[in-house]
Specification:
The protein has 333 residues and is of the alpha/beta class. The chain has two domains: 3-142 and 303-329, Rossmann fold (3-Layer(aba) Sandwich); 151-295, Isocitrate/Isopropylmalate dehydrogenase-like (Rossmann fold, 3-Layer(aba) Sandwich), CATH 3.40.50. 44% of the residues lie in helices and 17% in strands. It has helices at 3-12, 26-38, 49-58, 78-89, 96-102, 106-115, 130-140, 182-200, 220-235, 247-251, 253-259, 277-290, 316-329, and strands at 16-20, 41-46, 68-70, 121-124, 151-157, 168-172, 205-209, 240-245, 271-273, 294-301, 307-309. It has a six-stranded mixed sheet, with helices on both faces. Helix 8 crosses helix 9. The chain is globular, with a radius of gyration of 21 Å. The two termini are 18 Å apart.
Length: 333
């Protein structure tokens, strides 16, 4: 069974309420057909009810009573949400009237739904930029305790591969943070380990990657990775993590033993933390194309409650998988 299907099967055990602010987007509506059929999430669509139902009808999809539709413009919750948002942002100069106007935007309305517990998670990004998806969430829901940065990862499933957990490896950060500092890199490592544990049940073994292994090269970029490893250990003493490690030393047992003989991670890593976005993004795309790997993601991580950002080129199937991931992140296991 594919990893994406395993995630969906796990999500079925405890479905959660997921809000979709881009409710009038046909791919969202198409994705709902599979989600309803498999029964791993209860969906709330934001948008104009007549418009959404018209698109669904044209696509031959029966919404009936299985999906709740809310138009932020006439919702009885907008007053409550606007007052909450005003209280959270008035010290930034926001007026109550401005809060009302912003809450007519489905991305803000959806974020306040999650903030108030009226939804367990949010999925958007099929027609909105990453910054627009995360801005209202960061202003209200904020990051998880002890985590200062939102990051992303991909679950890479590499066929016929003995490394990681039989070819399953978490790559991070591949989509959000261009140049994380040492403390941010440590937070990315901690969040990625948790993602691997929650979504695919691995016991995370985290390698902090560099072009150096245990002092084989001297450079400020290497020092950042060393410092990040130290910070992550201090913040999460029970986390199995080591660095700095080159990619081959992290993955291949014989090389790991030779280059880092005292490491508990070398040659056994199943979570790879790249030192910057360039290396992470390049690596996952190369592995996906050259090794014909399945790349599940990007998966957002580090929020107090799950907010996931889609690629604007996503398919309906991508949306289905990200909704299932969001269910598990919301505690649906």
């Amino acid at each position: 069974m594919k990893i994406s299907q395993i995630i969906r099967e796990k999500a079925k055990k405890n479905p959660k309420v997921i809000v979709l602010p881009e409710g009038e987007e046909p791919r969202m509506i198409k994705a709902s057909e599979t989600i309803i059929k498999e029964g791993f999430a209860n969906l709330i669509f934001l948008g104009r009810e007549e418009k959404i139902k018209s698109i669904a009808k044209d696509m031959g999809i029966d919404f009936s009573e299985k999906i709740k539709i809310i138009n932020p413009n006439n919702s009885d919750k907008i007053k409550k949400y606007a007052e909450t948002y005003y209280q959270l942002r008035k010290n930034k100069g926001l007026s109550l009237n401005e809060a009302y106007q912003l809450l007519k935007n489905p991305l803000y309305f959806g974020a306040l739904m999650v903030y108030h517990g009226d939804a367990d998670g949010l999925v958007a990004g099929s027609i909105n930029a990453t910054g627009d998806v995360f801005r209202p969430a960061l202003q209200t829901i904020k990051t998880a305790p002890g985590i200062q940065i939102v990051s992303s990862c991909f679950i890479m499933v590499v066929p016929d591969c003995p490394y990681g957990d039989n070819g399953v490896i978490v790559f991070a950060d591949c989509a959000i943070n261009p140049e994380p500092n040492a403390e941010q890199l440590a937070d990315i490592a901690i969040a990625s380990a948790e993602t691997g544990k929650i979504l695919i049940g691995i016991e995370p073994r985290v390698a902090m990657l560099s072009f150096s292994t245990k002092g084989s090269a001297k450079h400020s970029l290497v020092e950042k990775v060393v410092e990040a490893t130290k910070i992550a250990r201090e913040k999460k003493p029970d986390l199995l993590i080591d660095g700095e490690l080159q990619a081959d030393a992290a993955l291949i047992p014989s090389i790991g033993k030779r280059k880092a003989p005292d490491s508990k991670i070398a040659g056994k890593a199943n979570v790879l933390i790249f030192p910057d976005l360039q290396s992470g993004n390049i690596a996952y795309k190369l592995v996906e194309r050259l090794a014909k790997a399945e790349a599940i993601g990007p998966i957002s991580q580090g929020m107090r409650k799950p907010i996931n950002d889609l690629s604007r080129g996503c398919s309906a199937e991508d949306i289905v998988n990200v909704v299932a991931i969001t269910v598990l992140q919301a505690g649906g296991v």
